[in-house]
## 1
Amino acid sequence: ADVRVLAPYEMRHPSDYVVKPSDLLAVRDADVVVYAGYEAMAPRLVEAADGTRARLVKIDTRNDPVTVAASLAVLGEVFGTPATATAYAARVAGFFAAWREELGRAGLAGAPVVAHTFQRPVAEALGLAVAGEFGPAPLEAARIVALSKLAPRFLIDTWHNEVGRPLIETLKG
């Protein structure tokens, strides 16, 4: 299969990828277009696919094992590879289970954290206690103070939309 990725994962914020005319032509010729729906380019992709053979497949991109398994199941159905999708979902679940065990051995199971809204599902899947949430908008002074008072063990941010840095300065350790 010929796969074309429009917004590369290496981008700091791939959902802001600026679609090019050649991308829109590729969408018109595609059999399947996979997207999340929050990308800035999503409306243009949907418009480019309208009236073509392209099948639009919208998936949930939260990174917890349950959501990943559901998105993989959708893709497995679309591409006729349900066994492969199930196998990958099992690998993701195993990865999270091993990570939870590692956190438990380190005495961090149930540790209070403040998490970027996009990372909350990951933190919860790891058995961490999400005491507070922030983002995706930049933190305002009052929110920094409120989250600091929660005395989290960790701050979990997202590389693609890092907004928690000002909070780090107010946390001990």
Note: The CA atoms of residues 72 and 85 lie 5 Å apart.
## 2
Amino acid sequence: DGIDFDVKKLTLPLWEKIVDCVSRRYKGKVKAYEIWNEPTVPDFKFAPGLADGSPDNYFQMLKSAHAIIKRNDPAAIVVGLGGVEVFVGGTGAEARLAESKAFSQRVIELGGKNYADAISVHGYSWDECRAAIWDAYTKNTLEYKNAWGKDVWMTETGQRSDQNADPTCTQSKYYDYAYAAYINAGVKKV
């Protein structure tokens, strides 16, 4: 095992070696594998290389990971999309959300539906509690769900406990509203 690599230099053969090693080692112990983390978020685009955040490269990662994981552990669940965003706050929010949706659509066009048992989304309200945010959570989650025809897992969500922009947006209020939005969107796992 002991694979050492620079994510900025990740190649498909190295990716496949890592996936093979992990899925063999954790067969029967890990029930689901989420492929990548937030591939549309700038902080997780590692260019140049396979992990550059492009949908075409992501599709190659998803397709190869699915084949390897299913070969090593047929019962394992492969979760695609890596947690695309259902809401984006701040400057450039609409453009980032549009990028996430375009990313998803391109992965579908390449055949991504064939290589995911479920898909994942991430929901953060960026310290705000407004009806428009919960409506966006529901609407955007449903768009991904309908486009993919797969169960949706909310694999990251939350609210900070301090320094909120809106002091009425406590963690408990966040969960009341956010979880209602997830239920309304038919999210399978949170």
Note: The beta strands are 32-34, 77-85, 118-124, 151-158.
## 3
Amino acid sequence: MKKWILYTMIGMLFIGCKKDQFDINNPSVEKFVQLLKSGTYSEYERNEKGELLWLKMPKFRQEHIAALIDLSKDTTHIQKFPTNPISSRTPRPEGRDYFILGECLLWIVEAMRGGGSLDPYLIDTSKDVNESYKGVTTTEILIISDKYRQWWSSYKNGNWKGNDPLAGTSYSWM
């Protein structure tokens, strides 16, 4: 009887650990955000020797867009984010040594929409070149988040890929 209780407890421990793991193929937006904010997101691409190369992007799909946009109001500064490994530029604006969470979440939505940005940051093209390459402010990210929210409300059941959420604004993905 004691062995049965011990095996049951060990089994429950393993089930509990499995439930807490992040599934990159069937991701939870909320869990992804939690891991990014805590700095513990650790899904890496590895080389043939098993060495870490770069953080992998979870396989988000259309059904994740609403949650990504909802959470894009979070302007927490984060240090790690799965960027595009083929980009030759720095993945952050000039002078910024952090990512802004909401901006990164909108970049994921933009990638699903088919946008061609290699890097997860926005610029304001109405500013002079030197200023625009410093990226947008957290206040601007909140405005842009609202643009994406309006876009999704208007196009989620239609041509959401073919309509640019930033059309008519001076904001652009880098």
Note: Helices lie at 2-20, 29-38, 65-71, 101-113, 129-132, 138-155.
